[in-house]
Design brief:
Blueprint (H helix, E strand, L loop, with lengths): L3 E6 L20 H8 L2 E4 L1 H6 L2 H10 L5 E7 L4 H14 L3 E7 L8 E2 L2 E7 L7 E5 L2 E5 L3 E3 L6 H13 L8 E5 L6 H13 L3
Length: about 200
């Protein structure tokens, strides 16, 4: 992995059709297309909870090379989530990279189902690495989440420098995910381009 990998929260958005995705692209090809442009993906909890064994294979077939899946967990990992995520990790193997937990509950586990955990919270932090952004703290395993991405290049540059500048010694790189009500892929592309220009 390079120092920085930019990705998004999910890959299926109506607003991406005709912009990021070609107008006539079949839904089954969207992940293939996404994975050619971006190498990491934060999978929404409701998405991975609905996957079955056929989905596992189709999703893995859609990505090639060094692609990384990160899995959203909301609040905590109950038994149903744990069973499903354990199955996914078993099948996805090295492409399953981490858990991104959105929670205000006090917790101290640094791994879930064998995956390292990044906690995104307003009130709680995990030991070790921390990055404060937009009123939240990302902590634990280095991994950033931006809830609303600014469209200003100078602000995007400052965001990237803040994120990468806080990596702990020996960190081989980390993903930065864009989340929000409506993700603008032009701005995500700009963020990725600025990161490459900065040498990240």
């Amino acid at each position: 992995m390079e120092n920085l990998q930019v990705g998004t929260y999910g890959w299926q958005y109506e607003s991406w059709i005709g912009g990021f995705y070609p107008e006539d692209i079949p839904e089954d090809w969207q992940l293939d297309y996404y994975s050619n442009a971006y190498r990491v993906l934060l999978v929404p909890e409701q998405a991975w909870l609905s996957w079955n064994e056929v989905d596992f294979e189709e999703i893995l077939d859609a990505v090639e090379g060094d692609f990384g899946f990160y899995f959203e967990v909301v609040d905590d990992l109950d038994s149903n989530k744990e069973v499903q995520l354990t199955k996914i990790v078993g099948v996805f193997s090295e492409t399953a990279k981490g858990v991104v937990m959105f929670s205000e509950k006090e917790r101290f586990e640094s791994s879930c189902c064998g995956l390292p955990v990044t906690l995104i919270s307003k009130s709680q932090v995990l030991p070790g690495w921390q990055w404060k952004v937009q009123g939240f703290t990302c902590s634990g395993e280095p991994c950033g989440v931006v809830i609303e991405l600014t469209s200003q290049p100078k602000e995007q540059t400052a965001l990237l420098k803040s994120f990468v500048g806080g990596f702990p010694d020996g960190c081989q790189g980390a993903p930065l995910f864009v989340k929000g009500s409506d993700i603008d892929m032009t701005q995500v592309y700009n963020l990725k381009t600025i990161g490459e220009f900065l040498g990240y």
